Amino acid sequence: MGFWSKLVILTLAVLAFFYVKVNFFDSPHVKVEKKLVAEEAVVEPPQNTPVQKAQTTATSAKKENTAKEESKPKKYVTVYFLGMDKNNNSIFKTVKREVPSGKNELRYALTQLVAGPTQYEKNVGVYSEIPKNVQIMGIVESDKKIIIDISGNIQNGGGADSLYSRFKQVIKTALANGSPKKPIYLYIDGKQAEVIGGEGIMITQPLSENSLDG
Q1: Is residue 124 one of the residues assigned to a domain?
Q2: Total number of domains constituting the chain
Q3: Cα–Cα distances in angstroms (integers) from residue 170 to residues 151, 160, 167, 174, 185, in the given order
Q4: Ordered per-residue pLDDT tens for the chain, 214 residues
Q5: Is 194 among the domain residues?
Q6: Residue ranges making up the domain that contains 81
Q7: Assigned domain for 182 exists
Q8: pTM for the whole thing?
Q9: Does residue 130 form part of some domain?
Q10: For residue 117, how many C-alpha atoms fall within 13 Å in the half-sphere facing its CB?
């Protein structure tokens, strides 16, 4: 084999060596692909870990409690206000109030009574004879009776008709929302009421629909 033939073969061998090295070992394209695959990989947390189980249980319990609250029937109290009939005579008007969860029904009804009618109710002719700033001082319920203590300013202002109407509002509201098996007694500023207002209206106890008619 001549010198030039050997030189050509050696040159081809060197070129082949560099071709293989560039395309199969040092290819930038391969490196970039490996890098992209590593960056795009998503790491999923292991399933059914204790933390996940606790979170799932808490979520399920919350949904169940919400469903139970929504399925509970709503409770309402009856509150007695006043209005006028078609002959322009004063009559008692009843309104319903939804009781918030956890509230005592009798206390809530009486609190709503002394707060007075809503603006809408006023617009349709409902009113109250109970003066502003009257407060329910306390309600004590035992196995045998219920005591309602109301502030003394309920007796302020108005004549005999006004006093009669406002105390009838209290009595009717109390009887409508108290326990039917327990007698209810009305106290004013901590003392059992016997005579109310300067007009000297007698009140018999325990309360009944006829407590002011004796």
Answers
A1: yes
A2: 1
A3: 12, 16, 5, 6, 11
A4: 566 566 656 666 656 555 555 454 444 443 333 333 333 333 334 555 554 555 555 566 665 655 555 567 899 999 999 999 999 999 999 999 999 999 999 999 999 999 999 999 999 999 999 999 999 999 999 999 999 999 999 999 989 999 999 999 999 999 999 999 999 999 999 999 999 988 789 999 999 999 999 7
A5: yes
A6: 76-202
A7: yes
A8: 0.67
A9: yes
A10: 20
